[in-house]
Amino acid sequence: MTRRGAVLRYVVLFAGAIVFLFPFYYMVIGSLQKETDPTLAGAFPNPANLTLDNYVNVNERIDLVSGLVNSGIFTGGVLLGTVVFGVLAGYALAMLQWRGRNATFALALLVQVIPFQLLQIPLYVLIARDYGLSDTHLGMILPFLINSTAVIIFRQYFLQLPKELFEAARIDGAGELRLLWSVALPLVRPALVTAVLLTFIGPWNEFLWPFLITKDASMQPLAVSLANYISTVAASTDNPFGAILAGAVVLAAPVVVLFIVFQRYFVSSDLGSGVKG
Amino acid sequence: MKRLLGRQPLGLLFSSPYLAFVILVFAFPIVYAVWISFHDFFFAAPGAEPDRPFVGLDNYVYAFTNDQVLRSFANVGVFLVINVPLTVVLSLLLASALNRAVHARTFLRVSYYVPYVTASVAVVAVWLFLFSGSGLVNTILGPLAPDPSWLINEQLAMPVIALYVTWKQLGFYILLYLAALQNVPKELYESAATDGAGRIRQFFAVTVPGVRPATLLVLLISTVTGANLFTEPYLLTAGGGPNGASTSPVLMMYQLGIQQGQPDVAAAIGIVLVIGVLVIAFIQNRFVGERES
C-alpha cells in the first residue's frame, strides 16, 4: 500500500513537472525551426529543420538589444530603489523605536493587497500627463520603486539578529548607518538575495504599466515590444511563430537562468514570511 | 523631541523615502481615482487646468449601462469560477505530494516555479502556438479538435485563459502551501494513523484543516490576480475576442479610459471592480478564515 502510494505520488509529481516544463521546451524548439511544424514530430528536434534565422528575423522587427537594455534599466532602477530605501525602511522597522513604526508596518502590508487596476488610471494621469514622464525610464520605474514585499522580508530578517550585538556596538559609539552597513547587512545576505530575486521578476515581467506609458519603440522594455510584435506585425512575417518564440526565449532566458542559479534562495520559509507578514 | 518622535527618531528618517513613495504612488492615487470617477474628467495638456465639473454617478451609470462592460464582468466571473477552485485543489495536491517526496525535490520544485517566474508575454507566445487552429493541441486531438478553434471560440476562449493563468501561477501557490505544510504538527498524522485513518482520510482530516490559513491566502490572492486580468486576453485572444467573449474589466479600462480618452469612466469601472473583489474577499474570509471557538 505505502509502496504503491509512493509510486503514485511520483507519477503525479513528474506528470506535473512535464506539464510545467513542456511549453518551455517547445518554446526553444519552435524558435529554432526553419518552418514551424505543429505535428507531433515537430516537438522533437530535426537537424534538417534547425536554424537561428528566427532570432535574426525578430531582431529586424524589434530591436532586441534596445529592448533588453530598457528592461535592464527598468529592473535595475527598481532593484536600486528597493535595496537602498527598502533596506533602510526594513532596518528602521525592525531595529529602531520611533513613533509611527507600527503604522508604517501596517501600511507595508496593506500596500500588497491594493490591486494595480485601481491605480492604473490615476497613475497614468499623474505620471504620463501631469508630470510629463511618458516615454522615460523614470516614469516606468516610479510606481515600482520600492517593493513592499522586500521591505517586509528585510524587516523579518533584521528582527532575527541578536539585539545584544547592536547594543554593544552602540555603546562603542557606532552610528546607526554604520551598524546597518557593517553589522546588519553582512548578516542578512541571504535575505538580500531572496529579496533581489523576488524584486527582479516584477519589473522584468511587467507588461501593463510600461505598455501604458511607452509609445516610443526605442524606450520600450522587451516585454512591451514583443507584445506589440505579437499583436500587430506577426502576421506579416513568413514564419511568425518562429520569430515570436525566438523573442519569447530572449525575454524568458535571463529570469529562468537567474532563477535556476539562485533557486535555493527561493524557498518557502523566506517568501512565506514575506507574503504572510 | 523624544516624546514626539519616539526614542530613536532616526527610524522615521530612514523610513521617510518609503513613506513618501507609499503616499505618492498608493495613497494619493487611490483618493484621486475616487475623485476622478465622480467628475467629468478628460486628458489635458500638462499645465492646463480645465474645468472638471462634479457629475455625481454619471460615469458609473455610463459604464454599467454599456453591454461590453457588463460582459467583461461576466467574463471575469467565469474566469474566477474556473480558476480559483482549480488553483486551490491542484496546488494543495501537488504541494502535499511534493512535501512527502524524498527524491528529485529540487528538480520538481524548480519545474513547478518556472512558469511563475517567467514573463506572461513570453509564455503566452507558446500557448498561442499550442492552441492555434493548426497547433499541436488540435493536431493531437485530430477529429476531436473544437471548431472554431480554442481561442476564437466564444465558449472556449475564457476557459482557455482561465486554464492558462492557473498553470502560470500555480507554482506560487504551491510555494505558499509548502510553507504552511511545515506547520502542520506531525503528531496529528501519527494519532490519526493509530486511529486507523488511511492516507486519504488523513489528508481531509489533518492536512486540509491544518493549512486553512494558507487556503484563505490562496483564495484571496488568486481572486485579486484574476480581477487584474489584462495581458492574457490582450494577447491570447487579440484584445478580448471573439466578439468580446474574453474581455476583462481591466482591458475595458484600458480601451475606454486610455484609448478612447474617458479616464473618468475607467476609474468608475476600477472602483466597482475593487469593491467587488473586497466583497468576495470578505465572503471568503467569513467562510474559510480562522473561526473563533
UniProtKB/TrEMBL annotation, chain A:
PROSITE patterns: ABC_TM1 (PS50928)
Residue spans crossing the bilayer: 7-28, 73-93, 105-127, 139-158, 179-201, 241-262
Keyword Membrane: yes
Recorded superkingdom: Bacteria
Cited CDD domains: TM_PBP2
Subcellular localization(s) per the UniProt record: Cell membrane
Keyword Membrane: yes
Chief location of this protein within or outside the cell: membrane
Entry membrane topology: Multi-pass membrane protein
ABC transmembrane type-1 domain: residues covered: 68-262
Keywords: Cell membrane, Membrane, Transmembrane, Transmembrane helix, Transport
Database matches in InterPro entries: MetI-like, MetI-like_sf
Family, per entry: Belongs to the binding-protein-dependent transport system permease family.
Name of the protein in its database record: Carbohydrate ABC transporter permease
Organism: Herbiconiux moechotypicola
Phylogenetic classification of the source organism: Bacteria, Bacillati, Actinomycetota, Actinomycetes, Micrococcales
UniProtKB/TrEMBL annotation, chain B:
Cellular location(s): Cell membrane
Main location: membrane
Coiled coil residues, start to end: none
The keyword Nucleotide-binding belongs to this UniProt entry's keyword annotation: no
Alphabetically ordered keywords of this record: Cell membrane, Membrane, Transmembrane, Transmembrane helix, Transport
Domain ABC transmembrane type-1 span(s) in chain numbering: 73-284
Domain of life: Bacteria
Membrane topology: Multi-pass membrane protein
Membrane-crossing segments per the record: 12-35, 76-98, 110-136, 156-181, 202-224, 265-283
Pfam family, one: BPD_transp_1
Family indicated by similarity: Belongs to the binding-protein-dependent transport system permease family.
Name of this protein: Sugar ABC transporter permease
